[in-house]
Design a protein that fits this description.
Blueprint (H helix, E strand, L loop, with lengths): L2 E10 L2 E11 L4 E5 L6 H8 L5 E8 L2 E2 L5 H6 L2 E4 L11 H7 L14 H7 L1 H5 L10 H13 L5 E5 L7 H16 L4 E4 L3 H7 L2 E6 L2 E7 H5 L2 H8 L2
Parallel strand pairs: 3-8, 3-9, 6-7, 7-8
Antiparallel strand pairs: 1-2, 1-4, 4-5, 9-10
Bound molecules: adenosine-5'-triphosphate.
Organism: Paenalcaligenes hermetiae
Keywords: Amino-acid transport, ATP-binding, Cell membrane, Membrane, Nucleotide-binding, Transport
Family: Belongs to the ABC transporter superfamily.
Length: 235
């Protein structure tokens, strides 16, 4: 098990947002967290990453209880986030982004990610390697944000709204790259809204509603019940 979340409660000061969330991800699994706006997806992510304190419950990452760990320590243990909004550095080149973050956080990786390997995954980044972060299109920034996370060789890659604001063609390119990562055994947690596409990409899905897990199951179960989409996802 890479990630195990047990009865997690958290929020902002006195305002509680998550009410007993359970979630587990096994090595090599691709799992989604789905739900309408404001249901607690980003709050869950911030709590997992140590940016919000845990009120109750436990989080285990790669076998260790990380409840009180700092964001920095959690990152070094091998959790990498591709943040909503990408947050590329305007004053670093593409190549510098990729070389600055190289690390070996998953000793079990047989073929570690390098900047060169990221260029193989995203040839467009190779063409842009000397461009600054602020000279890239939204899609290129997203590829760079994924590449920057990959070169840390994470045990768990988390994508927060990775396809947000992208043209359909570019969005599909991002999904296809996730297919490649999945085939290579990368464990991935995806937070997004595109349920139809994610059904083809992920093994397991969790739906959050008002800070609680109201449904979870595999893609076949999710695909077989469109009432779930209407009720909880507004599709
Ligand atoms: N910094 C904050 N301080 C107080 N309340 C917050 C803060 N950020 C979010 N919330 C509240 O927490 C609840 C869950 O928000 P959250 O951002 O986790 O939802 P979400 O499912 O990620 O939605 P979205 O897709 O819009 O990001 C909402 O009611 C929101 O208003």
């Amino acid at each position: 098990m890479i990630l195990e979340v047990k009865h997690l409660e958290s929020g902002y000061g006195a305002s509680q947002v998550l009410f007993g969330v359970d979630l587990s991800i096994q090595s090599g699994q691709v799992v989604t967290v789905l739900g309408r706006n404001g249901m607690g997806k980003s709050t869950l992510l911030k709590t997992l990453f140590g940016a919000l304190p845990i009120k109750k419950g436990e989080v285990f990452f790669a076998g260790q209880q990380i409840n009180t760990w700092t964001t920095d320590k959690i990152a070094r243990a091998g959790m990498a986030i591709v943040p909503e909004g990408r947050h590329c550095f305007p004053n670093l080149t593409v190549k510098e982004h990729l070389t600055a973050f190289v690390a070996h956080r998953n000793p079990q990786t047989s073929k570690p990610w390098t900047p060169e390997r990221v260029f193989e995954l995203f040839p467009r980044l190779r063409e842009r390697q000397n461009n600054m972060g602020n000279q890239l299109s939204g899609g290129e920034q997203q590829m760079l944000a994924i590449g920057r996370a990959l070169v840390t060789n994470p045990k768990l890659l988390i994508l927060d709204e990775a396809s947000e604001g992208l043209a359909p063609k570019i969005r599909e390119e991002i999904w296809q790259c996730l297919d490649v990562l999945r085939a290579q055994g990368q464990t991935i947690l995806i937070i997004d809204k595109y349920v139809q596409r994610l059904m083809r990409l992920a093994d397991h899905h969790i739906i959050l509603e008002k800070g609680q897990v109201v449904w979870q199951g595999d893609s076949a179960q999710l695909g077989a019940d469109p009432t779930l989409w209407e009720r909880y996802l507004g599709v």
